Amino acid sequence: MKRRLLGQWAAGVVFAVSAVTSMGAWAADEAPDALVKRISTDVLDTIKADKTLQQGNVNKIMALVDTKIMPNVNFQRMTASAVGPGWRQATPEQQKRLQEEFKTLLVRTYSGALAQISDQEVSMKPFRSAPDDKEVVVRTEVKGRGDPIQLDYRLEKTPGDGAGWKIFNLNVLGVWLVETYRSQFASEINAKGIDGLIATLTTRNQTNAKK
Hints:
Strand order of the largest sheet: 1-2-3-4-5
CATH superfamily: Tgt2/MlaC
CATH topology: Nuclear Transport Factor 2, Chain: A
Helix content: 55-70%
Distance between the termini: 23 Å
Structural class: alpha+beta
Oligomer: single chain
CATH class: Alpha Beta
Low-confidence stretches: 21-27
Radius of gyration: 17 Å
Number of strands: 5
Shape: globular
Order of helices and strands: HHHHHHHEEEEEH
CATH architecture: Roll
Protein backbone atom coordinates (compact mmCIF):
# COMPACT_ATOMS: atom_id res chain seq x y z
CA MET A 1 0.00 0.00 0.00
CA LYS A 2 1.43 3.35 -1.00
CA ARG A 3 2.35 5.80 1.75
CA ARG A 4 -0.43 8.23 0.80
CA LEU A 5 -3.06 5.49 0.92
CA LEU A 6 -1.62 4.18 4.18
CA GLY A 7 -1.93 7.66 5.69
CA GLN A 8 -5.53 7.89 4.51
CA TRP A 9 -6.27 4.43 5.90
CA ALA A 10 -4.77 5.37 9.26
CA ALA A 11 -6.72 8.61 9.36
CA GLY A 12 -9.88 6.74 8.50
CA VAL A 13 -9.34 4.20 11.24
CA VAL A 14 -8.74 6.93 13.80
CA PHE A 15 -11.82 8.79 12.65
CA ALA A 16 -13.89 5.63 12.93
CA VAL A 17 -12.53 4.66 16.34
CA SER A 18 -12.95 8.23 17.56
CA ALA A 19 -16.49 8.33 16.20
CA VAL A 20 -17.25 5.21 18.18
CA THR A 21 -15.87 6.76 21.34
CA SER A 22 -18.13 9.76 20.87
CA MET A 23 -21.32 7.71 21.15
CA GLY A 24 -23.49 8.55 24.09
CA ALA A 25 -26.69 6.77 25.08
CA TRP A 26 -28.95 6.24 22.09
CA ALA A 27 -32.43 4.93 21.57
CA ALA A 28 -32.80 1.21 20.97
CA ASP A 29 -35.01 1.90 17.93
CA GLU A 30 -32.61 4.38 16.30
CA ALA A 31 -31.89 3.29 12.74
CA PRO A 32 -28.25 2.24 12.17
CA ASP A 33 -27.66 4.80 9.40
CA ALA A 34 -29.14 7.57 11.55
CA LEU A 35 -26.86 6.49 14.39
CA VAL A 36 -23.75 6.57 12.21
CA LYS A 37 -24.69 9.97 10.76
CA ARG A 38 -25.23 11.44 14.22
CA ILE A 39 -22.01 10.17 15.76
CA SER A 40 -19.98 11.04 12.65
CA THR A 41 -21.13 14.64 12.82
CA ASP A 42 -20.47 14.66 16.55
CA VAL A 43 -16.92 13.36 16.24
CA LEU A 44 -16.01 15.87 13.55
CA ASP A 45 -17.23 18.71 15.73
CA THR A 46 -15.39 17.25 18.74
CA ILE A 47 -12.07 16.90 16.94
CA LYS A 48 -12.27 20.35 15.34
CA ALA A 49 -12.88 21.89 18.76
CA ASP A 50 -10.18 19.95 20.66
CA LYS A 51 -6.54 20.66 19.83
CA THR A 52 -5.29 17.82 22.03
CA LEU A 53 -7.28 15.29 20.04
CA GLN A 54 -5.95 16.78 16.80
CA GLN A 55 -2.44 16.34 18.18
CA GLY A 56 -3.12 12.68 18.98
CA ASN A 57 -3.01 12.93 22.77
CA VAL A 58 -2.95 9.24 23.63
CA ASN A 59 -4.01 9.62 27.27
CA LYS A 60 -7.05 11.66 26.29
CA ILE A 61 -7.99 9.22 23.53
CA MET A 62 -7.58 6.27 25.90
CA ALA A 63 -9.82 7.99 28.44
CA LEU A 64 -12.51 8.46 25.80
CA VAL A 65 -12.22 4.83 24.77
CA ASP A 66 -12.44 3.58 28.35
CA THR A 67 -15.53 5.66 29.16
CA LYS A 68 -17.48 5.46 25.91
CA ILE A 69 -16.31 2.79 23.48
CA MET A 70 -16.92 -0.31 25.57
CA PRO A 71 -20.67 0.24 26.18
CA ASN A 72 -21.33 0.99 22.52
CA VAL A 73 -19.20 -1.47 20.56
CA ASN A 74 -19.08 -5.25 20.73
CA PHE A 75 -15.34 -5.15 21.30
CA GLN A 76 -15.26 -8.75 22.48
CA ARG A 77 -16.64 -9.87 19.12
CA MET A 78 -14.20 -7.57 17.31
CA THR A 79 -11.24 -9.04 19.21
CA ALA A 80 -12.48 -12.62 18.89
CA SER A 81 -12.88 -12.19 15.14
CA ALA A 82 -9.37 -10.76 14.83
CA VAL A 83 -7.85 -13.57 16.89
CA GLY A 84 -9.78 -16.21 14.92
CA PRO A 85 -10.11 -19.89 16.00
CA GLY A 86 -7.53 -19.42 18.74
CA TRP A 87 -10.02 -17.31 20.70
CA ARG A 88 -12.03 -20.39 21.65
CA GLN A 89 -8.93 -22.04 23.12
CA ALA A 90 -8.01 -18.97 25.17
CA THR A 91 -8.82 -18.86 28.87
CA PRO A 92 -11.05 -16.05 30.21
CA GLU A 93 -7.93 -14.29 31.54
CA GLN A 94 -6.19 -14.60 28.17
CA GLN A 95 -9.28 -13.25 26.41
CA LYS A 96 -9.33 -10.29 28.77
CA ARG A 97 -5.65 -9.57 28.10
CA LEU A 98 -6.17 -9.86 24.35
CA GLN A 99 -8.99 -7.31 24.44
CA GLU A 100 -6.91 -4.91 26.53
CA GLU A 101 -3.82 -5.15 24.35
CA PHE A 102 -5.79 -5.00 21.09
CA LYS A 103 -7.58 -1.86 22.22
CA THR A 104 -4.28 -0.26 23.21
CA LEU A 105 -2.74 -1.28 19.89
CA LEU A 106 -5.53 0.37 17.89
CA VAL A 107 -5.43 3.58 19.88
CA ARG A 108 -1.65 3.96 19.99
CA THR A 109 -1.07 2.92 16.38
CA TYR A 110 -3.46 5.43 14.89
CA SER A 111 -3.62 8.28 17.40
CA GLY A 112 -1.07 10.35 15.48
CA ALA A 113 -3.26 10.36 12.37
CA LEU A 114 -5.81 12.56 14.15
CA ALA A 115 -3.72 15.53 13.06
CA GLN A 116 -4.88 14.79 9.51
CA ILE A 117 -8.51 15.52 10.41
CA SER A 118 -9.40 19.16 9.85
CA ASP A 119 -12.14 20.21 7.43
CA GLN A 120 -13.63 16.80 6.65
CA GLU A 121 -17.33 16.15 6.22
CA VAL A 122 -19.18 12.84 6.16
CA SER A 123 -21.38 11.88 3.23
CA MET A 124 -23.86 9.06 3.82
CA LYS A 125 -24.34 6.52 1.03
CA PRO A 126 -27.72 4.90 0.27
CA PHE A 127 -28.70 2.47 3.01
CA ARG A 128 -30.95 -0.55 2.58
CA SER A 129 -32.06 -3.05 5.19
CA ALA A 130 -34.99 -5.23 6.15
CA PRO A 131 -36.88 -4.85 9.45
CA ASP A 132 -35.66 -8.26 10.65
CA ASP A 133 -31.97 -7.76 9.76
CA LYS A 134 -29.63 -8.56 12.65
CA GLU A 135 -26.47 -7.29 10.94
CA VAL A 136 -26.09 -4.38 8.52
CA VAL A 137 -23.39 -2.34 6.81
CA VAL A 138 -23.62 1.46 6.81
CA ARG A 139 -21.47 3.00 4.09
CA THR A 140 -20.08 6.51 4.30
CA GLU A 141 -17.43 8.67 2.68
CA VAL A 142 -15.22 11.17 4.47
CA LYS A 143 -14.60 14.17 2.22
CA GLY A 144 -12.04 16.91 2.71
CA ARG A 145 -8.61 17.71 1.40
CA GLY A 146 -7.26 15.00 -0.88
CA ASP A 147 -9.13 11.94 -2.04
CA PRO A 148 -12.34 10.89 -0.26
CA ILE A 149 -11.93 8.14 2.35
CA GLN A 150 -14.34 5.21 2.14
CA LEU A 151 -15.46 4.42 5.68
CA ASP A 152 -18.01 1.69 6.34
CA TYR A 153 -19.39 0.36 9.61
CA ARG A 154 -20.63 -3.17 10.24
CA LEU A 155 -23.21 -3.22 13.02
CA GLU A 156 -25.21 -5.88 14.85
CA LYS A 157 -28.55 -5.56 16.59
CA THR A 158 -28.30 -6.54 20.24
CA PRO A 159 -31.23 -7.79 22.36
CA GLY A 160 -31.99 -7.39 26.04
CA ASP A 161 -31.50 -4.39 28.32
CA GLY A 162 -28.81 -2.91 26.09
CA ALA A 163 -30.87 -3.35 22.93
CA GLY A 164 -29.70 -1.32 19.98
CA TRP A 165 -27.06 -1.33 17.25
CA LYS A 166 -23.40 -1.93 18.05
CA ILE A 167 -20.36 -1.68 15.78
CA PHE A 168 -18.12 -4.72 15.49
CA ASN A 169 -16.02 -4.01 12.40
CA LEU A 170 -14.78 -1.07 10.32
CA ASN A 171 -13.90 -0.82 6.63
CA VAL A 172 -11.43 1.85 5.55
CA LEU A 173 -10.63 2.22 1.84
CA GLY A 174 -12.00 -1.25 1.15
CA VAL A 175 -10.03 -2.96 3.92
CA TRP A 176 -11.85 -4.41 6.93
CA LEU A 177 -10.03 -3.71 10.19
CA VAL A 178 -10.61 -7.14 11.74
CA GLU A 179 -9.41 -9.02 8.68
CA THR A 180 -6.29 -6.85 8.52
CA TYR A 181 -5.16 -8.09 11.91
CA ARG A 182 -6.46 -11.67 11.62
CA SER A 183 -3.63 -12.90 9.39
CA GLN A 184 -1.01 -11.21 11.60
CA PHE A 185 -2.48 -12.72 14.75
CA ALA A 186 -2.82 -16.17 13.16
CA SER A 187 0.89 -16.22 12.36
CA GLU A 188 1.78 -15.31 15.94
CA ILE A 189 -0.57 -17.94 17.39
CA ASN A 190 0.74 -20.65 15.09
CA ALA A 191 4.32 -19.84 16.07
CA LYS A 192 4.01 -18.98 19.75
CA GLY A 193 0.47 -19.73 20.95
CA ILE A 194 -2.00 -17.36 22.64
CA ASP A 195 0.52 -16.26 25.28
CA GLY A 196 2.98 -15.52 22.50
CA LEU A 197 0.43 -13.26 20.77
CA ILE A 198 -0.27 -11.45 24.04
CA ALA A 199 3.47 -10.96 24.61
CA THR A 200 3.92 -9.64 21.06
CA LEU A 201 1.05 -7.17 21.43
CA THR A 202 2.37 -6.03 24.81
CA THR A 203 5.84 -5.43 23.39
CA ARG A 204 4.45 -3.58 20.38
CA ASN A 205 2.34 -1.36 22.62
CA GLN A 206 5.32 -0.59 24.86
CA THR A 207 7.36 0.35 21.80
CA ASN A 208 4.59 2.59 20.45
CA ALA A 209 4.30 4.26 23.86
CA LYS A 210 7.95 5.36 23.67
CA LYS A 211 7.57 7.02 20.27
